[in-house]
Amino acid sequence: MLGNSGLSAVQIGDVQHLLGLLHSDQAATQHKAVKGLSLLVNISPEAAQAIDAKVASGLRCQQLSAPAQEVQIAAASTLTALAKEGSENQMIIAHAGVLPLLIQQMSATDTLVQTTAVTALAHLAAGQQPVASWLLSKGAINHIQQLLQSAEVELQLAAIEAIDSAAASDLQVRSVVGNVHTLTTLINLLEARDTKTQQTAASALANMALTSRDGVNVNMVRCNAAAALVAKLDPLHAAVCHQAARALCNLSGDNDECDDMISRTNAIPALAQLFHCSNPRIVAAAGKALGNLALFSVANQEAIADSGVIDACITLISCTGTAHVKEAACRLLHVLLTDSPRVHTLLSGNGIDKLTDLLNSPSVSVRHAAAGALSHLLFPRNMPGWKENNELVNKRNMMSMFQDELASLRAANQTAHSGDMVMDQLNDICLNNNGQVSVSARESQGTASSESDQENESVTGMEDDFQEMHV
After folding, report:
1. Using CA atoms, how far apart are residues 252 and 351, in angstroms rounded to an integer?
2. Would you state the torsion angle of the CA atoms of residues 27, 31, 33, 38, taken in this order, to the nearest 10 degrees?
3. Helix (H, G, I), strand (E, B) or coil at 278
4. pLDDT tens per residue, the chain (471 residues)?
5. What is the distance between the alpha carbons of residues 357 and 351, in angstroms, rounded to a whole number?
6. Which of 200, 251, 307, 451 lies 20 to 30 Å from 337 when distance is taken between CA atoms?
7. At what angle are helices 111-125 and 129-137 packed, to 10 degrees?
């Protein structure tokens, strides 16, 4: 049983009384108890903390087999509440033998019985690879995929959440549900009448894209996911918009075909337009998506610059917004500065001021992101304004602080990025005797060809550095 220090004495007393009734020899009393527990946890979800899963799960097996549908529904609802309390409860319930009974209930004639069963399975599989794998082996995942076609909205929502949950927990499940038919169904649900279904479908696509990075993502874009998600980038429907931006972010930056398919849509101007909305979660997700699209494409970098997003980034990093938004804006600038002299020109001066100000941020992630963007403004020498930018940073007495943050950024990423190209690039940046950023002797003595290779490396090397931009 989990800790219940946050519960009132009355709640604990009610739970204990109902658990006692579950041990009655009278079926009617047991049914009354299970319905009472279900009602209690629905009204006060925290009451599940006072329920001993070991005691309740075995008795729930009996209630799931009860002839009365309302008892079956109540039993499944209580199991869902218990599963939400953590992995220990999930495994206790799974080992109690309820999974086969819940699978049987998915074939019930009553849609509410089906819905509560699918919902319970979704929460039991969340983060539990053994449960998700077992469901796949018993054909339950295929059945849940079929329920995505249900005309009942609540059952459809439960099926989406179960697919999402199981796919996130097991690679094989993810491969199975990443088929064209299921992906097309989820994409079509982006046009459902109710926004809750749209949001849940977009969230499932975003989560599958985050954890797949493989053929599933390619299948997704081939099923026209990019255009469908771009069509949902409307901040008036904030929850749907946020999930659609997440999905585009997680689809991009790892696969050339995915990036190309997304870039062919109206994604870049649509994502750039989101920088002007007031929802920080949407702005951050949009910034990350644009950053991923810019990683390996100079054409996309120019298109993003044309969208007016540079000025929007400067506004965001100078406002009192969230650290998450400022980090996303700085990271986007970091990528855009990699190859574009035009972006260097746009950011010189005012941009330097704003980025150096962020070196004083209380957020480590913001300071690191700002230092990364600054490193591109102060280096390399073939970009416009590098000398003036160095002088400006020196005048503000911020060069030492910049160097400290850059060193901290290197240290923070050294293990994860050991030997990759972005770390080579960062390690090539040092301070000369005048306190200005310069390139190390190893690179500065190279030929024009090697300098070109280094520029290409700085682009491709951003992949690992930018993986945190998946959301």
Report:
1. 27
2. 160
3. coil
4. 444 445 566 566 666 666 665 555 566 665 566 666 666 556 566 666 656 555 555 555 667 777 778 878 877 888 888 788 788 888 988 888 889 999 999 999 999 999 999 999 999 999 999 999 999 999 999 999 999 999 999 999 999 999 999 999 998 999 999 999 999 999 999 999 999 999 999 999 999 998 656 789 999 999 999 999 999 999 999 999 999 999 999 999 888 899 999 999 999 999 999 999 989 999 999 999 999 999 888 899 889 999 989 989 999 998 877 898 999 999 999 888 887 788 888 887 678 888 888 988 999 889 888 888 888 888 766 677 767 777 777 767 777 877 777 777 767 665 444 333 344 444 444 444 344 433 333 332 332 333 322 222 222 222 223 334 556
5. 10
6. 251
7. 130
Question: What is the C-alpha to C-alpha distance for residues 383 and 183, in angstroms, rounded to an integer?
Answer: 44
Lookup result for tokens 């004639």: 109
CA distance 465 to 461: 7
| DSSP secondary structure of 409-459 | HHHHHTTTTTTSHHHHHHHTEEE-TTS-EEE-HHHHTS-HHHHHHHHHHHH
* Tally of residues, the chain: 471
User: 411, exposed or middle or buried, with CB in 10 Å at 0-12, 13-18, 19+?
Assistant: exposed
Q: Do 368 and 409 form a contact (C-beta atoms < 8 A)?
A: yes
